[in-house]
Every structure is written in C-alpha cells, then in structure tokens.
Amino acid sequence: MHFVEAKGLLTGGKGWLGMNVYRGCTHGCIYCDSRSKCYGFTHPFEDVEVKRNAPALLEAALRSKRKPCMIGTGAMSDPYMHCEEELGLTRQCLELILRYGFGAAIQTKSDRILRDIDLLDEINRNAKCVVQLTLTTWDEALCRIVEPNVCATSRRVEVLREMQKRGIPTVVWLSPLLPFLNDTEENVRAILKVCADAGVKGVVCFGMGLTLREGDREYYYAALDRHFPGLKERYIRTYGNAYDLPSPNAPALEKLFHRFCAEHSMLHTPEDCFAYMRELPEKNEQLSLF
Q1: pTM
Q2: Within 13 A of 51's CA, how many CA atoms are on the CB side?
Q3: pLDDT score at 288
Q4: How far apart are CA 122 and CA 101, in angstroms?
Q5: Are the C-beta atoms of residues 262 and 270 closer than 8 Å to each other?
Q6: Contacts of 48 by beta carbon, 8 Å cutoff, 6+ apart
Q7: Which residues of 199-217 are buried (b: 16+ CB within 10 A; e: fewer)?
Q8: What distance in Å separates the CA atoms of residue 237 and residue 189, rounded to the nearest whole number?
Q9: Collapsing DSSP states into helix, strand and coil, what is residue 24?
Q10: What would the pLDDT profile of 75-115 be if each residue is shown by its tens digit?
Q11: How far is the C-alpha of 257 from the C-alpha of 206, rounded, in Å?
C-alpha cells in the first residue's frame, strides 16, 4: 500500500454522499469491475492507495453540511480490506459519521466489519446504518477461487445474522453471476434462502450475468485459464468482445429471483434497494417509532 494526501473525499448530491477511503483492493475477486481501465488507475490495483487524511477531510465536510444524510462507502474499494486492521481509517470515519448525526451504508465482503458492530449499532440507533454484503457463490470451493482473499460465503452469512441480532438492516448484492460457473438455480436459490432466513431487507441484482470491459476482461480471462482450462474459449465463442455477458439461464433465474424475493418481502429491484439505502429518516420520524 501507499499513502496520499487526498484533495477531497465525498462525492454525490442532495440526500446522498459517497466516499472511498481506499483505492484499489487486495481481495483478488476474479470478476472485479473496479480493475477496468476506465477508472484511471495509475498504480497496480493491489497496491492500495490510502487516503491518510480521509478522517480530516470527512470532518471538515460534515461540519459544513446543514442537514445530515446517508453516506455510502465500498462501491469501488472494500472499506474492510486487510490494511484496515492496521490503519483503522474506516472506523475513524464511522466515528465521525456518528458524532455528526449522519447515516451510513457500508458495502463489504469482509467479516472485519464485525469489529465495528457496536459502532454500527450506535449509528443505526442514532440515525440509520445499512450493511451490505456481497454473496455470489454458495459452493465453498468455487467461492475460494472466484473470491480468493476474503472470507467464504458461509462466514458472510454469519455476519448477516449478527447484524440481524442487533436490528441493523442488511442488503445483499447477488451480482455478478458468472456464466457457466455459478449461474445455476441451485446457487441462486441457496443464497436467497439464507437471505430470507437472515431477515435481509433487499437483494441487489443487476441482471443474471457478468459485465467485462478493458482491464477487467483480461484479468478475468487469465483467471479462467488458471482454474478452468478451455472456459475462456467458450466465453469468446459465446460473447465475443461484448460488455454485457448474460447467463444462458438468465430468464429462468430472473423469474426465480423476483418470485422468491416477493414471496419473502425482500426488495428486489436496484431502484427500490437504493431508494431505501439513501433515505435517512427525520429525527421526529425515528422518535415516533417509540
């Protein structure tokens, strides 16, 4: 990793702000879109860029805001990578979010988030906190290949259950489903079942398939060559150089997904999930619940 003095931290508009304390990632997920060249990385993706002044930038920004809102993190780089154990910058930022009365929506694949569960609980009681976990692959052996440097799906389900015990709402990201690998009814149904059992508020799924673009595609295909010889050629025959790679099973999986979520009262369109995560109740609305 390397350190920089960032000029800014928050992005977004009215009612919603985003931040990334880190840039790059060490999880090694073979499908990661953040590797794509369009994001303009000038350093190796695994050489994580650390915005060492992130807490100071965040505090200055929050002081200037007239009205609290939700702050999202984890869209580009996981806030609970390995370096967070040593640096604790995500925790420092969450402490500021709590202090200034803002809400938080955190996206991760790591069980390191449990270290901060007391803090997340406070944020949720004071404003609102939504924890988002990515679950793509139920089979543990396959999960270790496609998401090699992060805890397995079963451990992430334990995280969901711990959040449920605290009353912290959760959202699961089902995307991406990798054609010819985890795009099966068995896989999707298993993930949805544990979501329902863990009381998940919603499931985000941007179609039953995968997207690939320059930078991401090359890394993904190299991983296929290492672990699944011959599969890259099947991808090329099926999809050519396309950006959108829908599963051949997409229609059936879409039907299963929407029906299951509706039956178990889970939000199941990206629009509904994002609307929920971006909404910060007024203080008087929260008090009225009690």
Answers
A1: 0.94
A2: 21
A3: 41
A4: 10
A5: no
A6: 1, 2, 22, 23, 24, 25, 26, 77, 81, 83
A7: bbbbbbbebbbbbbeebbb
A8: 28
A9: coil
A10: 889 999 999 999 999 999 999 999 999 999 999 999 999 99
A11: 11
